[in-house]
Design a protein that fits this description.
Layout: H1 2-10, H2 23-44, H3 60-68, E1 76-78, H4 84-90, H5 94-101, H6 139-154, E2 166-171, H7 178-190, E3 194-200, E4 203-204, E5 207-208, H8 218-221, E6 229-234, H9 238-253, E7 259-264, H10 282-289, H11 293-301, H12 308-331, E8 373-377, H13 379-393, E9 397-401, H14 417-421, E10 426-428, H15 433-445, E11 449-453, H16 464-476, E12 486-491, H17 507-510, E13 516-518, H18 523-534, E14 540-545, E15 556-558, E16 571-574, E17 579-583, H19 587-594, E18 600-604, E19 607-609, H20 613-623, E20 626-633, H21 638-650, E21 659-663, H22 672-678, H23 682-693
Parallel strand pairs: 1-2, 2-3, 3-7, 6-7, 9-10, 9-11, 12-14, 13-14, 17-18, 17-20, 20-21
Antiparallel strand pairs: 4-5, 8-15, 13-19, 16-18
Helix pairs in contact: 2-3, 2-4, 2-11, 2-12, 3-4, 3-9, 5-12, 6-7, 6-15, 7-15, 13-18, 15-16, 19-23, 20-21
Length: 695
Amino acid sequence: MADQASVLDRSSVGNAPDPDFDWRRIAYLVQVSRALDNLEETRLVPERKISYQFSARGHDMAQVMLGSRLTNPRDATCGYYRSRPLLLSLGVPIEDALGSAMGRAGGYSDGRDIGVVFNFPNPGGVPALPMSGGVGAQYTPTAGWAQAIEYYRTVLNSEAHRDAIAVVLGGDGSVAANGFWAALTIATTQKLPMLFYIEDNEYGISVPSTYQTPGGNIARNLESFGNLHVLSGDGTEPAEAARLVKAAAAHVRSRKGPCLLRLTVPRLQGHSFQDTQTYKSQEFVASEWTRDPLPKLRSYLVGSALDEAEWEAIEREAGEAVEHALAEAQARPVARPETVLSNVFFEGEVQQIGGQWTHGYQAPVAHEEPRPEGQRINMVTAIRRTLDRELEINPRVLLFGEDIGPKGGVHAVTLGLQEKYGIERVFDTSLNEEGIIGRAVGLALAGLMPVPEIQFRKYAEPATEQINDCGTMRWRTANRFAAPMVLRIPGGFFKVGDPWHSQTNEVQFVHNPGWLVAVPSNAEDAVGLLRSALRGNDPVIFFEHRAMLDDAWARRPYPGDDYVLPFGRAEKVREGDDITIVTWGAMVPRCEEAASHVSADVIDLRTLMPWDREMVLESVRRTRRCLIVHEDLKSGGFGAEIAAVVADEAFLDLDAPVARVTMPDIPSPHHPTLLNWAVPSVEKIRARIDDLVGF
């Protein structure tokens, strides 16, 4: 029981310090952390050299102990905004910690992200995975790293991963977040080597922990949770904290499954520097200061591991180190403003951590011209055959999602792949989209090529935070980390519609920086774009339109096992001189049919990020008319972006207004009669073509 563990561990307070810990280093790093907090609060924030400051006072001692237990370079940890002591224990330079807080070049992000949102590649050591500014977003990527450890052990037979673990830090407020429960489900159902380290300071900003967890004790509530070892105790008592941290790490390293360690700690300052804590009584604040772990650590060590002079020397050494780091940090420049445009996507310099390219992956020789083989096949078969081929030649590829295993997916795309490649490489997940994408982020960071599936476009909504965080990762870490993956999403209408299974809204993904977006209209393009994505070094949204998966028009011969189609290269499915029609996905065959009576360029964009501006502008300047057709809603749809570019760059070449045919601004109706009225039809497209040609 968690409370019993606490009682047993408190009885050891008078024992000699555990020789498995480097107590001098622990004392030094806690003092460094305190000196940093003091420097920021008394000088740098008042001087407006730091905008965001989150004190770690009270959390620091146990965090440093935890960091000392991360000893395998294949370990990884992911924390949150109060986790700087852990970063110090991993070896992050003090000047990087300060320089990042000040937004200077170098450090964690070259000034692109706030300094408390850490990342630390730590070559040769244990990395700190990129943290997020969102509460609870750190849990599922850490679960993905833990699953990658198991994959390296059991499938790739890596001895280096034999006792590796993944550690995630969170506060008591974060245990109410969806990401916490998603990660807990993943870790316990698969018995992953994952340590949940929960710092309970009794408040989530101003909200008591009893608002987050019934009774305010997540450890007690999870004591009966299956496949989870639970420990709980006082993170301010040196002997107790050391024993619990050591026991938790040892449990996970022994491959007995995940562990949750809850340590109670005081938050000795406000949530942030600006927080005056008026929501706490004076008596409560005073009681927190009586639990300060720093004086307890001094009492515990002086007279046993250290003498008084050594403690004072450590304190001076820490203070001098922080002052020296301040001088170095202040000497760093602010990054040149134009550099913020770099590293949204892979630009040729491989990131330090994340993706198969960092592990020596080299794609097979490819060809960009199709080499047709055999009879025409539908898009389902084309996608399945491409996934099959890449699974066969690349052991780092993993497929997962809801119902993609024995069932083969609700659209039959993955049918038979689990039987062929095993449950370790093609597997079903729990019904939690944040868990699906967050897990994929961790797998990608560990060097694998995850291919998660979101069953329908609308179901991606719970995963939007992870999607956004993944896309921005390369940019916000200044190319230190990236998480390349291929996120497959079926969507759009199919015979009927409805608000839940028939949404498109591709523009939302285009608006998430860092994601490539593919929208193939036929089997050949699907093969080429999917293979490019699977062999690439960026995260990709691969949109599979439901109406085209078995559509006769979309069938093409298989273009070859090494056919790749570069992103940003559109295709003219018809060529002509009177009008340019720009479209993608299920609207391509409709536009081709609608334009059969005129001389028209019908351009299938094939990808929306990037999109082929050059082909569109060249065509519009020649035909002098432009019609954009898409299934998505008109207001804010991607067609508006194309229209704006055409108006900006080809206005003087136009003989008619730029026009659009789209869905009205409504959800997808269910009944076929209603759906067919709302979705752009051949008749509606043809009528608009005639209007523009006759303008």
